[in-house]
Design goal:
The chain has 1 helix and 19 strands. With 300 residues, it is mainly beta. The strands form 5 sheets. It has a 6-stranded antiparallel β-sheet with strand order 1-6-3-4-5-2, with no helix packed on it. Strands 11-13-15-18-19-17 form a 6-stranded mixed β-sheet, with no helix packed on it. It has a 3-stranded parallel β-sheet with strand order 12-14-16, with no helix packed on it. The radius of gyration is 37 Å and the shape is rod-shaped. Among the domains are: 87 residues; 98 residues, Jelly Rolls (Sandwich). The longest helix has 11 residues. A hairpin with a 5-residue loop joins strand 7 and strand 8.
Length: 300
Amino acid sequence: MAAPLLKYALGNSASTTSSASVSNVATSIPLTSSTNFQAATVPGEGMALLDEGNATEELAYSTGLSGASLTTPLVNRGLEGGTAQAHSQSATVKGILSVGMWNDLITSLLNILDQTTGAIKTSLSLTTPRITTSINDSSGNEIIKTPATASAVNEVTITNAATGNPPIVSATGGDTNINLQLRAKGTGKIDVDAYFQTPQSYSPSGAGTATLLLAGGNDHEIIMPAGNITIALSDATVGMKFLVSILQDGGGSRTVTWFSTIRWAGGAPTLTTTGSKRDTFGFKVTGSGTYDGFIVGQNI
């Protein structure tokens, strides 16, 4: 392994001599004694100063101990502007904290700390951070919890927007079709301040069938063709509520065959006969194939 940017220091008072000569291409430094080198965060890993005070002085980074030798890949020899050197037997080997190590640490800390005050920066750019349990407020109280799901492939994407456009919360991920759930706790309900939905529009050709896709929303508009139509439903679920708005064509007097036997509040309605006028009805799915219906507005 090459020397990392943030390097360990070898154990306290880690100092000895080489037990044999070392060439400038050697990948290990044999030690007379490994005492204190064992006490490094990872035994034997850290910055070593070789031949201190001599012309062959060298900084090398050890990745660990192999027996009584420091493992020093060739890319870890001659660090901090130096070059790999040959060392005779009994060359000094000392664990140190170098200027380069200290400066690399400061440079890394400046990614999150203000250099002038030492305080955490108020604006941090994080790429794919991992949040283990939750995002908390300034008092340490949970705002958003982030439980982990093994082998998760689907997620939520939040997209911001320019002036005049709404931000978007989307279900995204590996699956082709993904539902997005909002789930209350216990007997709690989903409380929405304001609700807006673009109606799904249907315009059968001739005396055709308009199949309302209830899974796509609860607001449906049928633009009548020059003929009478049949209304069918797709994906009806017990408890679901939805609106159906029927707009007469210019000729008017078109009729519909409803999707089922409906229990109408106040009796079954008669569609508006006036051309280009609208009737709106509300429905609730009360069982498999059973519906309650009521008039919202007519001849509008």
